[in-house]
Amino acid sequence: MDRAALIDKLRDICGEGGVFHTPSDLMVYEYDGGVDGAVETGRPVAVTLPTTTEQVAAIVKLAHAAGIPVTARGAGTGLSGGAITEEGGIIVALTRMDRIVEVDREDRTALVEPGVINLELSEATGPQGMFFAPDPSSQKACTIGGNVAENSGGPHCLKYGVTTNHILGLEVVLPDGRVVWTGGRASGAPGYDLTGALVGSEGMLGIVTKALVKLTPNPEAILVQLAAFPDIDSASQATSKIIAAGIIPAALEMMDNLCIQAVEPQYHAGYPMDAGAVLLVETDGSAEEVRAVGEEIAAICRECGATEVRIATEQGERDRLWKGRKMVLAAMGRLSPNYYLHDTVVPRSQLPATVARVAEISADSGLPIANVFHAGDGNLHPLMLFDRRKPGDTERMLEAGKEIIKFCVSVGGALSGEHGIGTEKRDYMTLVYTAEDLAAMAGLKNAFDPGGRFNPGKLFPKGYVCGEVRALRAQAIAQKHGIYAW
Ligand SMILES: Cc1cc2nc3c(=O)[nH]c(=O)nc-3n(C[C@H](O)[C@H](O)[C@H](O)COP(=O)(O)OP(=O)(O)OC[C@H]3O[C@@H](n4cnc5c(N)ncnc54)[C@H](O)[C@@H]3O)c2cc1C
């Protein structure tokens, strides 16, 4: 099928205004939130904006018949290149499927379309006493479909768990255009956990067209504490001790001095400019519980050298403290024309050693590195500051990133805590997985998508799933393990 015929057929499905195909329209979709240089860019043949599951299924069936790759896209805030069409094809942008179909107060669930914005779901259900707990810092923009595909985390996932813990069921369009439901209202359905397999699958197994999500009751009381420390090491020690004491705060976040320098003059969150690091610790529960746990946390912080522990109980104060944390990335432009952040996880006990190694890498590379953490989870986001206009800066940044990842893996860490692998980290997968592990994962991919047309090129190092350029190496692996057919 030629391009013009394809566009016509897509218009028949989505209507005149539901298909973008001019170069200037397509250019916008060449990127996600990742950094050019660290993730690939790629121009799709067309972008479709369906409004119903039936339209999504029709687009997929058309693409399936024509052998064209299909990539789902939410708000494009992903940081690992997941929504970029490196191999061309059709983008299915789900942003017009943005209805909250039903809220069930009794069962505390919501049935939503994938384009619903994360924060808007909690805003809609808040007055009914419930919220959607996974809260990525991008929650004002990112979609539930994107959250499901990346198994996103956020500050409150320390206590409440990441996205996978909040998804009961999914309506999914499979790579051949069939529409299926996985999971359901009751938990613990027998058989394979297909919902579990789909969450975090980076849009490579199916396109989510509806999600049945769990809602969490609003807590009775919330306390946010700001603890300032002379350095990042003492803040890391306090983090470890809080968790070791058996306390599970709702959120436990850390920012170093560079983050404070970026954020405070812009957002006036109230962070002390001279602190080496600050911890934001949120506790929720009954009023009594919150007060008692808050005192325990304050004592641990002081024991670890905190120079100040401030308490915010009023909503306005709490929001101000949180705004600072949530705007760290946006504020980095005050310090540097470009930044690139990695998302890795280490066992919490390894945080102090990891922070020390990041400081060494910063010194060796000559690039400042700011640190913002979901500290309670051991999830780090080192932000490397660079200027892409300066010759050599991008290369030094990429090299520094590689060193950070290698160190995290060497202390038992994981490649990504929440941003996914995409194209950004696919070549690092062999650092943590053997060829056998990857072949087993490719087996799952091929069971859903034997043609390899859903979001191709993501997650696997080149050569591990079927596809033109990868066929030889992948076939050798497949033959060796006899796991999947071609
Ligand atoms: C400032 C900033 C802060 C961030 N903070 C966090 C954070 O705290 N925690 C965190 O986890 N992430 C964070 N992120 C990363 C990003 O916001 C999340 O990964 C988010 O879930 C992506 O959602 P999206 O709608 O933008 O998806 P996109 O970027 O559009 O897509 C991401 C992936 O999901 C797939 N996808 C999208 N919709 C569907 C669907 N309906 N069905 C199947 N696959 C689909 C795409 O193919 C792609 O692989 C942050 C990003 C930014 C820019």
Automatic annotation (TrEMBL):
Keywords: FAD, Flavoprotein, Oxidoreductase. Its cofactor is FAD. Residues 40-218 form the FAD-binding PCMH-type domain. Pfam families: FAD-oxidase_C, FAD_binding_4. One of its GO terms (molecular function) is glycolate dehydrogenase activity. It is an enzyme of class 1 (oxidoreductase). Its EC number is 1.1.99.14. This is Glycolate dehydrogenase, subunit GlcD.
